[in-house]
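User: Study the shape:
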Amino acid sequence: RAGVDPSAWSEWEVELVDGPVPLLDAVERVLLAGGAHPAAGPSKLARALGPLAPPPPAVHTVPKKPTAGQVMMAALQTTVERLKAEDAGARTGAPDAVHQMRVATRRLRTLLSTYGPLLDDELTTHLRTELKVLADTLGGARDAEVLRERLLALVETQPSQAVLGPVADRIDTELGKDYERAMTRLRRGLEHERYYALLDELDALVAAPRTTPLADDPARLVVPRLLGRDWRRMRRAVRQASAIDDPARAETALHEVRKTAKRLRYAAESTTVVLGLRGKQLARSSENLAEVLGEHQDSAITQEALRDLGLRAQRHGENAFTYGRLQGIEEALQGELASKDYRKAVGKVAKRRLKGWKQV
C-alpha cells in the first residue's frame, strides 16, 4: 500500500493436532535451539500492515467500587467482542454460530436500552436501529434451522402407521431450501457496507463512549434503578397480556412478554457484578419465563409451517394426513404451556423484585 515500506520475513507455526500439550513445549525447545525466536507482533496481518494496523481496543475493567459507566462499558465491550467472534462462523454456517451472533446482537440492543440514560440518546437510538436490522438478517437462517430440527424430531416420535408418505424427506427438502435461501441473504447482509459501518460504530463506542454525567455516579445507586425499569416493563406486559380475550391479539401480547423477559434477563446478567446473587436469580427467573414463552411461540410457528408443508405435499400428490396430525399435537401442546408453566414462571420473576421497585 502507498506509504508503507515493503517488508518480508519467514515464520514457522506449530499447531497441536493430536498428543499431549507438553509436546508443544518440546517442539519449542528444539526450534529455539536451532536459532528461532518468537515472532514479532500479535499476528502476521498486524506485522504486514505496520503503522496502518488499528490499535488494540481499550480494556474496560470493573473495580471493586465501580461507577455505573464502568459496569456498562465492561458489559458492552464483552458483548461487542462476542458479536465479532461469531462473524466467521455465521458466514460459513458453523454449528450454533448464527444463534450466538443473534444473541449477542440482542444483548447489545438490551444494554443500549437499559443503560440508555448513561449514553448519548441519538447514538443509542441509531445503534439499536442498526442492530435490529442485523438481528432480523440473522433471524431468517436461525428460524429455518430450528424449525427443521423441531419438525424432524416430532416426526421421529410418531408411530409408523401414523406417518403416511415421505413426510421426513419432504420436511428436510423444503426447509433445507428455506435455510439455504436465508443463509444467502445472511451472507449478503454481512458483506454489505451497512454492516461494516455498524462494526466501526460499535468499536468507536467502546473506544470513546459519549456518556452523560449519570455514568460517573456509583453503580450501586444507579444500576438497580435502571434494572427496575426493565422489570416494571415486563410486569406491565404481563398485565396487558392477561387482560386480552381475543386469541390473535393475545399471541402478540405474549410475544411482547417474551421480549421483555429476554431483555430483563440480559440486563440482569450485566448487573451481577453489582447485585451479586440477586442479579443472578433475577436473570435465571427471567430466562425461564422467556424459555416457556419461546416454546409457546415455537409451537405457534410450527403449526403454521405444518399447514404450509401439508399444502406443498398435496401439490406433489402426497398424503397430507400426517401434517394435520402433527399440527393438532402442537396445538394441544401450545394450550398446555400457556395455561400452566407460564403462570408459574411469571410468579417467580415477580418475586425477584428488589427493594425500592414498585409493583406493577
User: Anything to note?
Assistant: The chain has 14 helices and no strands. The radius of gyration is 25 Å. Residues 218-360 form one domain. The CA atoms of residues 1 and 49 lie 9 Å apart.
